[in-house]
Specification:
CATH superfamily of the largest domain: Rod shape-determining protein MreC, domain 1
Structural class: alpha+beta
CATH class of the largest domain: Mainly Beta
Shape: elongated
CATH topology of the largest domain: Thrombin, subunit H
Distance between the termini: 64 Å
Helix content: 25-40%
Number of helices: 4
Length: 263
């Protein structure tokens, strides 16, 4: 039969029934050109309906993925016992090495400037189902960073004490300082403070390094009151021994976080 307009229209309808995908795109629109208007409108509507169904399937998958990620985020927040909202997109890194001569001073991790790490960024670890303070970044290289631990002699953190049984703050703040050994020293507590072995030590809202309410350690020893000092001191055991960690969380500093948002 000659390829007249009615024959081409019939052929296009038959092809659509057998293979609707062939009508997607610009070439498909040309094949519908010879079909009567009413039939063409029905075929175009059927094609658009099929495309919309595919898009709905994709959106359903995306929505399900978002819901899964949100549920996982809520579960992880609950598991880690977060009391504060941490900056978005924390940087996870693995501990690469530790200097045997300076065991309680620093560790090297495998994330650096190319991953968004900045100087003085707080470094946290996960231990016992919660986040704990580990140290801060003091040197940034392209693919690695040096982290000064809270046990280093040059480390100090503003902290407050909490009762271990009630989890209520004791309204006692002090300065937690590293000693280069496995224990920390908490100074500048009020001389009349009521202290107990086992009191929990959290980062203070006045801390310049860590977000507030991050566990730093536990009171392990209460020193006798020194009559020549105007404050009380206690010994604190770090919440985690850095050598026991294989992975750490580096938080973006406020400046680095704002810079990444403006880029």
């Amino acid at each position: 039969m000659p390829l007249s307009a009615p024959v081409r229209a019939f052929k296009a309808c038959a092809v659509y029934v057998l293979d609707p995908i062939a009508f997607n795109g610009a070439q498909g629109a040309q094949r519908l050109a010879d079909i009567p208007v009413h039939a063409r409108n029905l075929l175009v509507a059927a094609i658009e309906n099929q495309l919309l169904r595919q898009e709905l399937k994709s959106s359903d998958w995306t929505r399900a993925e978002v819901e899964t990620l949100r549920a996982e985020n809520e579960r992880l927040n609950a598991a880690l016992g977060l009391k504060v909202r941490l900056p978005s997109a924390p940087i996870w890194a693995h501990v690469m090495e530790r200097d045997p001569l300076h065991w309680y001073r620093s560790v090297m991790v495998d994330a650096g400037g190319e991953q968004g790490v900045a100087l003085n960024a707080p470094v946290l670890g996960s231990w016992g189902g919660r986040l704990v303070a580990l140290g801060r970044v003091i040197e940034v290289r392209p693919q690695s960073s040096l982290v000064r631990l809270v046990t280093d002699e040059l480390s100090s953190v503003a902290v407050y004490l909490t009762s271990p049984s009630t989890q209520t703050p004791k309204n006692l703040e002090g300065l937690l300082q590293g000693q280069g050994i496995s224990r920390l020293l908490l100074n500048y507590l009020p001389p009349e403070a009521v202290l107990e072995k086992g009191d929990l030590v959290y980062s203070s809202p006045t801390s310049a390094t860590f977000p507030s309410d991050i566990l730093v350690g536990v009171v392990s020893k209460i020193f006798p009151r020194d009559p020549f000092l105007t404050f009380h001191s206690v010994e604190v055991e770090p919440a985690v021994e850095a050598s026991q960690l294989q992975e750490v969380m580096i938080l973006k500093t406020r400046q680095a976080h704002m810079a990444s948002r403006t880029q």
